[in-house]
Amino acid sequence: MKTFDVLLRPVVTEKATSGEKEGKYQFFVSKDATKVDIKDAFNKVYGVKAIKVNVINTAGKTKIGAGRREVPKKAALKKVVITTASKKTLDVLKPKLKI
């Protein structure tokens, strides 16, 4: 799997950014990415060693539309929390690796 195919985008919420002080960063990743793939991609893109990777699989949500039929509302996602060894904060919106 290619490096830029693994990490899709960072999670930018108030709860996710509060963990950056402790060296924890959250990303949406590809559904078929493994923990090893995620760790390697993070190390290559940001130049910081990841010591721990926690994976969270979320199910897709549906709602009932007109005529009592199900309408897909939210896609199934895979989210990870990456813990780094260094306590200094990264700018996750600006990766160090250039294409």
Keywords:
99 residues, alpha+beta, Alpha-Beta Plaits, four-stranded antiparallel sheet, two-stranded antiparallel ribbon, 3 helices, 36% strand
Give the biggest beta sheet.
4 strands, antiparallel
Tell me what the CATH architecture is: 2-Layer Sandwich
Summed over residues and divided by their number, the pLDDT gives a mean of: 87
Backbone CA Rg: 16 Å
Task: Describe the protein in words.
The structure is a single chain. It is built from three helices and six strands. It has 99 residues and is of the alpha+beta class. The chain has one domain: RRM (RNA recognition motif) domain (Alpha-Beta Plaits, 2-Layer Sandwich), CATH 3.30.70.330. The chain has a four-stranded antiparallel β-sheet with strand order 1-2-6-3. The chain has a two-stranded antiparallel sheet with strand order 4-5. The longest helix has 12 residues, at 35-46.
Helix-strand layout with pairing:
Layout: H1 3-6, E1 7-10, H2 14-18, E2 24-29, H3 35-46, E3 50-58, E4 61-64, E5 70-74, E6 77-84
Antiparallel strand pairs: 1-2, 2-6, 3-6, 4-5
Question: What would you say about this model in short?
Answer:
With 99 residues, the chain is α+β, with helices and mostly antiparallel strands.
